[in-house]
Specification:
CATH architecture: 6 Propeller
Number of helices: 2
Number of strands: 24
Bound molecules: calcium ion
Helix content: under 10%
Shape: globular
Radius of gyration: 18 Å
Number of domains: 1
Structural class: mainly beta
Distance between the termini: 28 Å
CATH class: Mainly Beta
Strand order of the largest sheet: 3-2-1-24
């Protein structure tokens, strides 16, 4: 059966901005574009891998990961690339930064202690604390909009290689609870809706990796994407109406958005390079659609020849774990 792939862009003007990682220049850099995909700008322009951008709640700064000094460390910069500050300089890799809603702290994952844990750091680089303290892998932290809780992915119940779940804990690391309670799948990369009522996440419970959404208490788990290729990295828009994500569906990794119910999927990047890890700014942009984007939106949806996706759990997870090197 021929699958209809959503490869075209948006036709309607969108507000706010989206940052993402891409290797369309010499190596991975952080780019910022309008939320309709227009005017992508390189804001890192630095040798070495720059990736995993995360917009501060006030829209003024970006946390991101860079290997420019060797290992993966958390950095913060203004949204135009100025005012660079390095926050971590430890042994090990420090990745997946997530701002607290008040902009004062950043949660991230680090393997500095021998296994991957969730850490907290103040936005000035002080006060690093291990929150998760569990020998299994804890990863992909994200704050609840009210700042009281942190959702994460963790292998702590099933074990690495056997399945991950989306957990939630209090912001001090206490009260850890399993939200997704999958039977044996990889459930991870949670992202809270701005009103706190729902959590988007990725799961391979139906075979391929797809975006799902659930109520914040874990009930009502619903599949949003059905494309056979890899869909992951969900991130809600500030108005809660759309979810950005990454997908391999059109032959290379692109940044997409869709309505929060899974309809209206559109390709924002339309570039043959790897474009991954979208993050929305809360600030409202000009909202004017560029001529290029209007042209892209005028292109009808097209079907592409089916490609074989990675079939083993290990191959899927390896492809999902990072866009670097792809
Ligand atoms: Ca770079
Ligand atoms: Ca751990
Ligand atoms: Ca691309």
């Amino acid at each position: 059966m021929k699958e209809l792939r959503t490869c075209s862009g948006l036709s309607a003007p969108q507000t706010a901005r989206v940052a993402f990682e891409t290797n369309r220049t010499s190596d991975f850099e952080i780019f910022v574009m309008n939320a309709d995909g227009s005017n992508p700008v390189n804001v890192t322009k630095s040798p070495g891998l720059d990736y995993e951008p995360e917009w501060s709640p006030d829209g003024g700064r970006l946390a991101f990961v860079s290997r420019r000094a060797g290992r993966a460390d958390i950095y913060v910069m203004n949204a135009d690339g100025s005012g660079l500050t390095r926050l971590t300089s430890n042994v090990g890799d420090n990745e997946s930064p997530a701002w607290s809603p008040d902009g004062k702290r950043i949660a991230f994952e680090s393997d500095r202690g021998g296994n991957v844990e969730i850490y907290l750091i103040n936005a000035d680089g002080s006060g690093q604390t291990n929150l998760s303290k569990h020998p299994e892998m804890d990863f992909h932290p994200v704050w609840s909009p009210d700042g009281t809780r942190i959702a994460l992915g963790s292998y702590r119940e099933k074990g690495l290689g056997k399945g991950a779940d989306v957990f939630v804990m209090n912001a001090d690391g206490s009260g850890v609870a399993n939200l997704s309670n999958s039977s044996s799948s990889y459930d991870a990369r949670p992202d809270w809706s701005p009103d706190g009522s729902r959590i988007a996440f990725v799961s391979n419970r139906s075979g391929g990796l797809d975006i799902y959404v659930m109520n914040a208490n874990g009930s009502g788990q619903t599949r949003l994407t059905t494309d056979p290729d890899l869909d992951s990295y969900p991130e809600w828009s500030p108005d809660g109406k759309r979810i950005a994500f990454r997908s391999d569906r059109c032959g290379n990794i692109e940044v997409y958005t869709m309505n929060a119910d899974g309809t209206g999927q559109a390709n924002l990047t339309l570039n043959p390079a790897t474009d991954c890890h979208p993050t929305w700014s809360g600030a409202v942009g000009s909202g004017s659609a560029s001529p290029a984007l209007r042209a892209a939106g005028a292109v009808p949806e097209r079907s592409t020849p089916g490609r074989v996706r990675p079939v083993s759990l290990a191959a899927q997870l390896e492809a999902e774990a990072s866009c670097l090197g792809r």
